[in-house]
């Protein structure tokens, strides 16, 4: 079938950044998103104004497009599966999402595949926790099983009292060992309708208060470590029979051990550098997979790149035009502003990518130049 119209569940920045790829490939984007000022509304051919978990709205979306994909995974999977049974085409298929939406199920899925994950267990009761963590040391990590993002729902816990307080409010958590990582890494991978897989260079991600602040491409790791991560990505995408782009977050420890933190079943913040620094962006690549087109070159076009997220640091309605102009004036810098009308602390408002001549040279000063313009002291 010839695919021309792509429905996207979610109209945030990840859908907004698909616009260039869609234009290049001659595709139209139709977006299901709750608010008319959501970023992707401005680039969509057509919009279904509704929450991402509104299945009736997705049924309407389906009448206006050839295939439906996701920029947001907080959907009603049971409801959508009725639509899939009726013949509505989702790419990736819902079966590729279903083991991933609950963080506990996701960990179990990866462990069953024989892939390396931190030690973990599901919270059932406080007594069960005390016996399970008997041989562990604090800190430990407590995570909401569902709907967590940007560190919301993830707690680094230093003592039993704090743990008991959070757990007594709800038991839909999982607990995992705190990984003493030396770096956090990520990889973007795309799988086509025919099962072809392409991967982007492994990147280093740096978070503050559990929110991604910067991404460095490529990561300073050994070729063997990169090969191990490529193999992990292939195994995950093949076993889920993914059609589309997924992001995989990982930890690396001082002794070089690699552990998977999380799979995002969609394009991911750690791949934004690809817009300016790679032959093909992760967004175009995703659309290629979803539209049944051949995948394209993922190589870097420069030796190295740094992406800095422009996170909200106050409650405001400012469009920060002066700061954006100052950032754009830095050589080899590309500012992407998502057009959100409201800033809140930690909210992703935009990002900046800086292209570098040398890998890993002078990173600190480049990052400092960006962040000193963006963040007040
Ligand atoms: P979210 O889905 O909200 O992004 P994550 O599970 O990715 O939440 O956690 C956010 C951040 O918290 C990670 O990037 C990492 O910095 C930290 N973190 C999460 N799990 C662990 C862990 N087991 N050990 C150490 N740090 C962790």
Account of the protein in words:
This protein is an alpha+beta fold. It is built from 13 helices and 17 strands. α2 (19-25) crosses α11 (282-290). It is globular. Adenosine-5'-diphosphate binds next to β6 and β14.
Sum this structure up briefly.
With 377 residues, the protein is α+β, with helices and mostly antiparallel strands. Helices cover 29% and strands 27% of the residues. The strands form 3 sheets. Strands 9, 10, 11, 12, 13, 14, 15, 16 and 17 form a 9-stranded antiparallel sheet that branches.
Class based on secondary structure composition and strand pairing: alpha+beta
* Morphology call: globular
The poorly predicted ranges are none
Helix proportion: 25-40%
Ends apart, CA distance between termini: 55 Å
Compute the average pLDDT.
95
Give the topology string: H per helix, E per strand.
EHHEEHEHHHEHEEHEEEEEHEEHHEHEEH
Count of DSSP strands: 17
How much β-strand is present in the residues? 25-35%
The biggest sheet amounts to: 9 strands, antiparallel
Structural descriptors:
377 residues, alpha+beta, 9-stranded antiparallel β-sheet, 4-stranded parallel β-sheet, 13 helices, 29% helix, 27% strand, binds adenosine-5'-diphosphate
Q: Could you give the topology of this structure?
A:
Blueprint: E1 5-9, H1 13-16, H2 19-25, E2 28-33, E3 46-49, H3 55-63, E4 67-70, H4 77-85, H5 94-97, H6 103-112, E5 120-122, H7 126-132, E6 140-144, E7 154-157, H8 160-169, E8 173-177, E9 181-191, E10 197-199, E11 203-208, E12 211-217, H9 223-240, E13 244-253, E14 258-264, H10 274-277, H11 282-290, E15 304-311, H12 321-328, E16 333-337, E17 348-356, H13 363-374
Parallel strand pairs: 1-2, 1-4, 2-3
Antiparallel strand pairs: 5-8, 6-7, 6-8, 9-10, 9-11, 9-13, 11-12, 12-15, 13-14, 15-17, 16-17
Bound molecules: adenosine-5'-diphosphate.
